[in-house]
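Standup, Tuesday
Yesterday: got the pipeline producing structure tokens again.
Today: sanity-check two examples.
Blockers: none.

Example 1:
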Amino acid sequence: MPITVRNLVPDFLEFWDQARAEDEQGQLTLWAEYVERHPEVIDDFRRSGREPDPRAALGLYPKALELIRANAEAADGWVHEAAELVAPVLDARHLELQAVVMVGLGTANGWVSDFGGRPTLFLAVERIPDATAARILAAHEFAHAVQLPLPEVPWTDIGPLGQWIYSEGFATALTAELLPEYGLAEHLWFGDGYDDWLVDCLQVLPAAESAILSDLESEDDEVVGRYLTRNQGSPFPDRVGYLVGTRLVQDLRRTHDWPELARWSTEQAQQEVRRALSRPRC
């Protein structure tokens, strides 16, 4: 499968070699120049309409420098390993994809968005603590990068809650099947230490499913975030929507294969999520 990986970590290290001895204003000036050369660095903010503030990240970088250097050497391999794992299962070897490996602002570890008119996989190495996290995360995000363009009408990175419940469930269920040596909680959080979180989610799962069903058509970022990010003021555990979507897609796998599920339109995915969440609960 043709895949282009742009590794911006060496450019970050060059920036930091100049910026590390500067005061805050000097660092901010150099950072602005760095981002102007590499707008990919703030894509996580661009896609959500947020304004980036690099000051917290400038304080993080010295502590993360050893991890950044280590991950810079390994990151290209993570992407290619994920491609070899995911693409054949989805019958997607024909796709031409692009990936960006970089140092971000410490706010997200990986994502996929439309950059330059193409679905692009982003990995932020300062947020990837070890090889286990890298392996799970790269496969998960690669699944997104493949699933978005495969349908007859490609998915965009904008849509209602139901679309994202399906999408996150698809990527998590796929990687859980392809990498069975890791537990479900590890796939849902890209690392260990979340077994108690999984128990908490299962205890409120019926209520969470009902709430998601009620909000299924919402495109409001706050509503979507209530189920898919670290929420505030919600009665449910953070990211409970990942578990809801994963269980839903795992159930769909009983009657559908991966290439078919990867090619569903947004309308069909939304319909299937609604149907699954509307079933009577025992």
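Example 2:
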Amino acid sequence: MSNAKLMTPLFYQGNFNADGKKMRAILVREVSNGTDTYRLWRRDGKPDRKRPSNTDDAYILYVELGGYLATLGMTDFYLTGHCGHQAAVTALYGDEDKREQYFDSQKPSDGNGVAEALEQERALAQEYGRSPARQADYIKFILDRHTAAYRAAKENDGETPPDYIGALVLGELQNCVELYHIYKDKQRERNWAYCRKCNQLAEKQVQKALRVIREGGVLRNDTVEFYRSRYDFSVCSIFLHLMKLYYVDVPLRVQGWITTKLVSATIADGRCSDIHFWGNKGDRTSQRFVDCMNELIRAVSA
């Protein structure tokens, strides 16, 4: 019979669990260093990891805080190994520098020896890492980092993302929700400002290319970038962008040639007069590109 309980995770599907949705969770154990005590939980049911190293590596751990379960972002196996790593290094080698010297001294051909040394180190780390005090110390260290991140966001009024776990530790969860909305608004404005700046630069690039076409000169096949949002943008050859802008029909094969081979084109006396492109000796210019380019020149000059 399962000893699972309905608990409230701090996050649900990656977002703050504002609706208080529940999940079935199983108490793993309680750890303490004499000053700080933490109850560790895991999800009930299907493992979190598809290919765990062992049974202790199947579920992500949660720490109980203020009526919520906050994720530690690691499995029991990782937590134990991390907490015991330094003690194992000290016992086996003395310190990290001597550990590095030991492995540097091993011959490449002695693969089995290195593997055995690493396995001994992992086994000893797991043994030392089971100490409740070491685990409590490390969890306290993790929570202190979350708290510092939340305090920083609070001090800079949402310039940096507020940390929900840190806010939970301090009992300021509702304030964190409000601060997160401030942060998102500022982030949205920063993203739009970035897009505006990039699009302004792209528009200047387009206007400069149009002047070359109208007045004559060398037009390099640079790329132009237009942003719809911070991570949603299009990158295109300046030639293809202008041909699309002026409704010049360019066959797909010519589009590929422009993208991969064209370096620059010279415009003189209202025509495309000289073309530089990547290729082998004896390769010829795409005549269809010349036709498209002359059509673009006429359209821009009209």
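Quick observation on example 2: Residues 173-215 form the longest helix (43 residues). DSSP finds nine helices and twelve strands in the chain.
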